[in-house]
Amino acid sequence: MKQRMVLHEPKRHPDHVYFIESGLVSLRIVAADSILETAVIGHRGAVGASLFVGEHLSTHQSVVLFPGSAHRIRVEDLYRLMTECPGIRKELFQYVQALTLHCAQTGLCGVRHDREKRIASWLCLASDALGADVLPVTHDYLSSALGLRRAGVTETLTQFEKHGLIRKMRGVLQIDGRKGLEQKACGCYKLISGAYASSES
Fold first, then answer.
1. Residue 64 neighbours by CB under 8 Å, 6+ apart
2. Angle at 129 between CA 84 and CA 110, to 5 degrees
3. The whole model's pTM is what?
4. What one-character DSSP code corresponds to residue 111?
5. Residues 105, 122: Cα–Cα separation, whole Å
6. Which of 32, 70, 130, 185 could form a disulfide with 18 if both were Cys (CB 3.0 to 4.6 A apart)?
7. Are residues 146 and 140 in contact, defined by beta-carbon separation less than 8 angstroms?
8. Cα dihedral sign for 60, 63, 65, 71?
């Protein structure tokens, strides 16, 4: 998966479901040349899995944020496998439930929580999904995805760096103080990460 590759477009029936091995995919709503990211999907995640809980058209755009690799399967082939192996159906449904909560909680978070908490939550969730503490993300991207002013994003990241939570480098953020960053995050982070953990158990 190359950076900026579009896996799914809204209002189109996807041909494939992608099971992510590495990299990060942004699930987003696009309207009037603006984006609002509702979730990030990384390793152990599936892009397009919501088709199997009644959605026939993709409502989101799925774009590769960080390059990586995935296994791809045609939708009709996965339907057949789910019929033959009920365990696959059960696991997919559990994952989709967690992803649905992630998307809904992101919407609530954007309305209820302040900039510092939202940015800390995003960094923790992206780190979990990517399975790494080095995130190739820019201030501009965080501003766009979270609907925040770029100056405010820069101010918050500078404060995080002063407290030893992150290090800013060109186009990359290194998480150094993970526990401290989790403490800065709102309760949405624990709720979302807990839902994914339950779907894997």
1. 1, 2, 3, 4, 5, 6, 7, 23, 24, 25, 26
2. 110
3. 0.91
4. H
5. 12
6. 70
7. no
8. positive
- Identify the CATH number of the domain defined by range 111-200: 1.10.10.10
Type of residue found at 165:
L
Extended strands (E) in the chain:
6-8, 16-31, 34-41, 46-47, 61-74, 134-135, 166-169, 172-175
What's the pLDDT tens digit per position in 129-175?
999 999 999 999 999 889 899 999 999 999 999 999 999 988 899 99
Residues 6 or more apart whose CB falls under 8 angstroms from that of 62 comprise 6, 7, 8, 18, 25, 26, 27, 28, 41, 47, 48
Neighbour tally for 154: CB within 10 Å: 15
Distance from C-alpha of 47 to C-alpha of 58, rounded to nearest angstrom: 10
Are 143 and 153 contacting, i.e. CB atoms less than 8 angstroms apart? Answer: yes
Cβ atoms < 10 Å from Cβ of 150: 14
The answer to whether 40 and 125 are in contact (CB under 8 A) is yes
